[in-house]
């Protein structure tokens, strides 16, 4: 059976879905335990891994860019907050909300690809 573009996209989308799940868990932990540099490095490696998958899935490019911006804003907000970020900080809360929405949008796009849409 020949490998079609759609089949290859679904395979990559499946890998992306697993990477998104790991990223979601690790990034939530990163926010809770900010300045754990080993965890920060793992989260960064996860973003790099997802970048490769998304580069092969052009239909996700808008969601990917939205996610990258939200991720960068979240990390910047964490750095600005210092070693003990307060979840009651309005700037951090706004960044967490945007990040959650962007991650959800990327997941939805990935799910559409997995369904063949």
Automatic annotation (TrEMBL):
Species the sequence originates in: Ramlibacter ginsenosidimutans
Stated name of the protein: Uncharacterized protein
């Amino acid at each position: 059976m020949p490998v079609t573009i759609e089949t290859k996209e679904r395979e990559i989308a499946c890998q992306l879905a697993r990477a998104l799940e790991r990223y979601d868990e690790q990034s939530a932990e990163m926010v809770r335990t900010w300045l754990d540099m080993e965890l920060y490095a793992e989260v960064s490696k996860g973003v790099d891994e997802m970048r490769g998958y998304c580069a092969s899935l052009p239909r996700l490019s808008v969601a990917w860019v939205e996610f990258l911006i939200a991720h960068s804003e979240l990390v910047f907000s964490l750095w600005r907050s210092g070693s003990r970020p307060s979840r009651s900080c309005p700037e951090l809360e706004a960044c967490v909300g945007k990040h959650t929405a962007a991650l959800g949008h990327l997941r939805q796009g990935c799910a559409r690809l997995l369904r063949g849409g």
